[in-house]
Give the backbone structure.
Amino acid sequence: MRVDVLTLFPEMFTGVFGTSILGKAQDKGLVSLNPVNFRDYAGNKHGTVDDTPYGGGGGMVLKPDPIFRAVEDLLSGYPSEGSAPRVILMCPQGESFTQRKAEELAKEEHLIFICGHYEGYDERIRQHLVTDELSIGDYVLTGGELPAMVVIDSVVRLLPGVLGNETSAISDSFSTGLLEYPHYTRPVEFRGWKVPDILLSGHHANVADWRRKEALRRTWLRRPDLLEQIELTPKDRKWLEEIRAEHEE
């Protein structure tokens, strides 16, 4: 996968792209992460990328021409419109980013992210350039760089070969529609708190059942809204009845 990030602050991505999972993914040749300073496409000696809004008001608005030029430069090698990458605008007005969206984007070969600053974007960028608008939450940050990092990390870890254990991403919270079950490791007993006996039994089917039930329990306790969005099996429904009864005692 190739990921280009249009930003006024490419230095913000140096540590994030060069360390941990993202750094290892690049070292393995599984992904190419490229910050692009769209000020380089300003077309004037001052590198101006923003201007005052028509109609008045506070703040400055990002001009369309530098961002269009930058994206068009990145797209210059594509033979047809159908093969072009997704162009993603990071914006608090966008679609809420979810694990399902991460899984969808992980199937792409090339993604371009646009990180804004100031008061906002010229509307023509939304209307005529981007394919997706994404938000990581109902709050406002000083720019799109941190949200872009969040989305990129979430997407890249899903690429084949990126994680050491390929089952890790499958069982993550939200990947199955449920929150993830509890984890334990050595020692068996720590300050009087013991690992559940079922996890020490070596009975894989029983362990799988315990994990599913505990994932249901955690989701019911913390995010019951998620249960309305997934298809529950008869066994799931039976376990939920047991869980409700246990917590009513």
In short: The longest helix spans residues 204-222.
